[in-house]
Amino acid sequence: MAALAPALVAIVGPTASGKSALALRLARERGGEIVSCDSLQVYRGLDIGSAKASLDERADVPHHLLDVVAPDEAFSAADYARLARAALADVAARGRLPIVAGGSGLYLRALLDGLFEGPSRDDALRLRLERLARRFSDRRLHRLLARVDPAAAAGINANDRVRIVRALEVYWLTGRPITAHHGTASRPLEGFQVFLVGLSPDRAELRVAVENRTRQMFASGLLEEVQAVLAASGGVAPRPLGAIGYRQAVCVLRGELAAPEAERAIISETMRFAKRQMTWFRHQARVAWFETPAEAHAAVLDWLDRLPDPGLGSTRLP
To answer: What's this model's pTM, rounded to 2 decimal places?
Structure first.
């Protein structure tokens, strides 16, 4: 009889919804290891602003795909998929339960479904788009993307010029939105039975969590963390510092914002980003949604307990 494919639990949802805490709880209870699915946590030195697992948490439960590259190094969704798939295979081969947790919809899709090859880069077109961004801002470019491919825009940060430019490049070179190509993706993940569980908290409760996290980030040394990254890069902010939280911290250090203003801006932008994250996940993945981590926790345990053998998958999806 052929061996049953191992189980894989993936936890998604907006920022500050409790994904990491749920992943840690499940890992401790079921002998799991966590594979981060976060586009900031792959960078070394970006700990506080990315809400990276603490050293104590990492000593308690093994984590993968943290601190992979320096902030000024290039790292793509394809890079993530390659490394994350290798990590999943390693975790499962050792009889452990792999748990993917994070809020990057693009990374999750790359991991589970693969990414289409796409047209080769067009340097002339990219130069025109770069000039447009420099003249009118990344947000203007993001609004342009939202008009031609709303689904792609929902999953890309308004300040992520690299991915915005690539999505627009694909649209103009192929005549189709980049999301229309997802059905022609490269090889999807094989060899696992996947339970996709999503956290969808009440918006008022999520805002409280975002407010608390933002205050804690500043109290824990966000400004000092950003100062160290800037010093290491000669004062030039590498691309990851354009993310929410880091971008405002850079403005504080440069005297362009006061800390209280930065906190308010982070909270407002994070809430808008959370809304885009939910739009992305609801359209891109087969997710079982739960309002609270407790409900999601019970559902995951029930799914695992119904598998033919502990930690092994079945042919059904929940």
So the answer is: 0.80
